[in-house]
Fold this sequence. Notes:
The protein is of the alpha/beta class. It is 37% helix and 17% strand. Helix 3 links the parallel strand 2 and strand 3. Helix 5 crosses helix 8, helix 6 crosses helix 7 and helix 7 runs antiparallel to helix 8.
Amino acid sequence: MRNLVSSLLRHVRARHAAPGVHVTSLAPRNLDAQIDCLRSWKLASRRICTVNHARELSAIAPSLPGWIEAVPVEFEPRFGKYHLPYREISPALAQMKLTPTELVSFANSDIALRDLRLLAPRKHVRHDLIFASRMNVDEAGNDTGMYRSGFDFFSFKASDASLLEGMHYHVGQPWGDFVLPVMFLRAGKAVGRVDAPAITHRMHDINWSQDVWATFGVECARDLFGVRIPDEHVKKAVPILAAEMKAFLNSDELGYRRNPRQNADAQAEFDRLQVTIERRMAEFLNA
């Protein structure tokens, strides 16, 4: 029976998983639970890599199993914490010497892989970026519902990692998961959202404050859309921005298709979002 199970598992891996690397950034607490999550990605025959500030890695390295590759990077802390900036993922991948077509999956360290089909190579035949939300689970592992307010999984070819170099948003903090798909669209890349409950996340308290959320929201409006939100309007304008981006990224137009639109339409989709944001912000700020 054990040989049969092993044979079936190898068959599933061969059919649904693609060679590549799974990247995360381990938090320096509750390591055992995070490592358990990473084992689910290892089952997909992926290299596992954690990218952390060198100071953090020196503290957690003794507790890491040998199959987790640790890549140290240097950056300035923000809000007093060493959350990894997305822009550091690209140079970290360069250290790993991946081939341009090798697939890179990325998720927070507390995200577990439930369905290997999420990593199927066919999803990247015409999609440059695949992204997905998580299924939340309780302490007993029971499903409590899909999370619809953000995204927890991203997959792209190593050759597109340079698109992250302009992202100063931080892993495990708000807005980066909104910005990343839009960065791909703005570069003319085709993106597809997978709605299946292929990844899971055990519920916990949020690790950021409303002040951090508002600060990154103001920066998102400025960086992506050229909209400057005055300080006196932040409290009301940022939720409007968040609602519009959430609606856009969850729209049917961005849903994964077996026969997706061509890359030439990506710019049109970004332009649609740009016009919507400019209109909504103007309506509010000029009211």
